[in-house]
Design brief:
CATH superfamily: Aldolase class I
Number of domains: 1
Helix content: 40-55%
Strand order of the largest sheet: 3-2-1-8-7-6-5-4
CATH topology: TIM Barrel
Order of helices and strands: EHEHEHEHHEHHEHHEHEH
Bound molecules: phosphoenolpyruvate
Radius of gyration: 17 Å
Length: about 250
């Protein structure tokens, strides 16, 4: 059986103290409650705290991911963080394609493909986000949009390269808005995404692939979303910032 995955995307939240105390409390909870190994929990703190976070979680079943990497390998790119830098502090997972990166930092599918390739070169596991805007859904273009996003990015990868890929369907209209896709809407899109992978890469790998839902998941709606056949867990923003809420989602 596939493990359910829950990812906490902290974005630009939590300072040093908040990050370290959250992780210590999380560890304590996992230890005391003996959280079963049918789920995988990944936390994505900000860059400056990845190193200390890795030290805190050392030896535990909790994982870390970076929220971004630079598409260039090294050199004069002021303010950027490379895949090799992250690898050197023991980080092997990265979130790419998040709609906030696309919107505020102008990351196009072309740039994202470069990021995917550099991440793969350094052996990263990629969590790749796709999703449509409210207007695109109103025009019933959501399937076309998601297909295009895939065709211009991850579909340029080989079968081997996508073997560890985690996909995240994140309708942009649901991110940070409190509006969640209904379990049925999300399931329909997840099934469609999986069918696109099946057409491109075959059934074996596509059925094993984890496709997460993201967009205003909370402790009340998580269980219904996660019980859908093609929803393999969630990418959680706001509700991952408070440990009690986040733990309820993990336990869903
Ligand atoms: C996200 O940013 O990936 C996200 C899903 O945010 P939120 O849960 O706040 O909608």
């Amino acid at each position: 059986m596939k493990k359910k995955i829950v990812i906490a995307n902290w974005k630009m939240n939590h300072d040093f103290y908040e990050t370290t105390s959250f992780l210590r409390n999380l560890l304590k909870f996992f230890f005391e409650k003996k959280i079963n190994n049918k789920k995988k929990v990944i936390i994505a703190p900000s860059f400056p705290f990845l190193h200390i976070s890795n030290q805190i979680l050392q030896g535990s079943s909790l994982n870390l991911a970076a929220q971004n990497i630079c598409q260039m390998e090294k050199g004069s790119y002021t303010g950027e963080v490379s895949a090799s830098m992250l690898k050197s502090i023991g980080i092997h997972k990265v979130i790419l394609g998040h709609s906030e990166r696309r919107k505020y930092f102008y990351e196009t599918n072309d740039i994202l493909l470069k990021k995917i390739k550099i991440a793969l070169k350094y052996g990263f596991h990629i969590i790749f986000c796709i999703g449509e805007t409210a207007l695109e859904r109103e025009k019933n273009e959501q399937f076309l949009i998601v297909k295009k996003q895939l065709e211009e990015t991850v579909f340029h990868c080989s079968l081997e390269e996508i073997s560890d890929l985690i996909m995240a369907y994140e309708p942009i209209w649901a991110i940070g808005t409190g509006k969640t896709a209904s379990p049925e809407e999300a399931q329909t899109m997840h099934r469609y995404i999986r069918s696109l992978f099946i057409d491109k890469y075959g059934e074996t790998i596509s059925k094993k692939m984890s496709i997460l839902y993201g967009g205003s998941i909370n402790d009340l709606n998580a269980r219904n979303l996660f019980s859908q056949e093609d929803i393999d867990g969630g990418l959680v923003g706001n509700s991952s910032l408070e440990i009690e809420k986040f733990l309820k989602i993990v336990q869903s």
